[in-house]
């Protein structure tokens, strides 16, 4: 690790800010893209250790010389990073030079990606200092500003002692090429120091109530800020307001620290730093902050509300929904035609890159604080607030963005939030006057543009096939619940997904239609995906078992029917209490009626006629063949190779042994057992 700690400390002691700035800038430039997890290097190292283990044939093999050297280099680099973090945090409380201050913050931002060096950054004093530089608080930390007289001398002595123990390799010999500090590196440090490669950001539509650490990916730029290719960040910053860059860098450090440290998350709550973020949402404060600073304020708010439930509750109780809704309205620059109707001008410019990124963060925060309200009956005031929010979310679905990827991500987070809001408030999506090219429901003059957009979004997710559970289950759940609550929505969606049956020569799951793709998901390995897909088809069939089997085949439908206890077929309809289904009938087409009697109910198609396997056999031979099959099944059952199942009185699958009370089953079992005993006696 090429950092001269002794030189840095001497510059601080002597007040040589220019030399100190140069030293830190060299560190920042060299390690701008560090702390990725190099999977190839990790795999090579595992293979070397495995080969060494096999060679020595020992359970605990000794490390090779190269491994020992690498371990020493890593330990030495870690000591230097820890020392640098301690020194910079201490110096940060005294620095007044704006340029040097930003360089120090950038150094801390790089260091804060490493969980092993976070200790100096999670103290009360460090967090308050960073919060003050980020504009979140005005708390005075002067009592910690003055270091001990011999503070830096102790650091130098400790550093020399450590270097001696490590064999003097800490300085001047470089670190391992991969810098594999940890796989759970910071994923929120989006802005890259190099214009050629940017750090990737994880997809946060997945279950934000439980964030998962991910391995960083290269190749994705931070698109919020325009940069010229080949221009160093330091040069670009010269024309930017110093206060903006300072606040932004401090906010990035806080994002890294809060994400990587549970201690920092707890102290963020204890120190009530979220109050500064809430103040930043106020109309006056938000309009005066630069867009990049607003983005990182929102990103930090998303983190703390996702990781600390009490902060999510606090934000909700302090009017967070209304504040965030107003911020969302400002980002979209909504022009209202009516109470719940926003203007959707086709000639309006697409949503800008900056605005789309801020909107996505707002949607994620709103999901964090409203996800528990889905099943609750809102008060009159809350219902009006949620309807106002849904009217804005409709614009998020319908408006175009500059980039297609941004539009898809924006719609994904909009779907997540819609699925978290009370169902009765979603009627706003349909309460828009019809226009010339609007989609509408047959027989009812209702605007179905928004429902159509949701259908197209679901189709795109089906076609991509990427991260099915995370990306597809929210839209499937939203469409299912909407179909239950609004019969017009169900009627419109059914027309697109389940058109009248005409061609029944193929299995329902075969083909590339939306219906075929959904039916294939009904037998998916993931239980949640399987249930969501089946539930949507079942609701489109008005929860009618016979109709459900007709469209999907009994084999595909068996999973949901078994879950609901409907395998026995009793009760053709089992509607949910909150379902609103019309009384329209499912009329069969002429093509379907002609082949209806020849359809195999298990596969859901017309099967080719097969020759009768018992053709030419006498009645005695047929009876003997049936007994032989029963004996084989019993043998397989006793050997635990298969377990015969039956349907009980509730329509659920249970082992045959649990159906002893059924006279027909009792008779069959007793006959098979007696026949088997007789067969074994004959063999003996």
The main pleated sheet reads as:
2 strands, antiparallel
Report how far apart the termini are: 82 Å
Helix/strand/pairing category: mainly alpha
Strand order of the largest sheet: 1-2
Radius of gyration: 33 Å
Strand portion, in percent?
A: under 5%
DSSP summary: helix tally: 28
SSE layout:
Blueprint: H1 5-14, H2 17-30, H3 39-56, H4 65-92, H5 98-111, H6 124-133, H7 151-165, H8 233-237, H9 242-260, H10 262-270, H11 274-281, H12 283-288, H13 291-307, H14 309-317, H15 320-332, E1 336-338, E2 341-342, H16 353-370, H17 380-398, H18 404-420, H19 449-464, H20 468-485, H21 487-497, H22 514-521, H23 527-540, H24 545-552, H25 554-564, H26 590-595, E3 599-600, E4 605-606, H27 619-638, E5 645-647, E6 653-655, H28 663-683
Antiparallel strand pairs: 1-2, 3-4, 5-6
Structure description:
α13 (291-307) packs parallel to α16. This protein folds into 4 domains: 1-178, no CATH class; 316-432; 435-606, no CATH class; 622-683, no CATH class. It contains 28 helices and 6 strands. β5 (645-647) and β6 form a beta hairpin. It is mostly helical and 684 residues long. The chain starts with a helix and ends with a helix.
Highlighted features:
684 residues; mainly alpha; two-stranded antiparallel sheet; 28 helices; 2% strand
Quick overview:
With 684 residues, the protein is mostly helical. The chain is built from 28 helices and 6 strands.
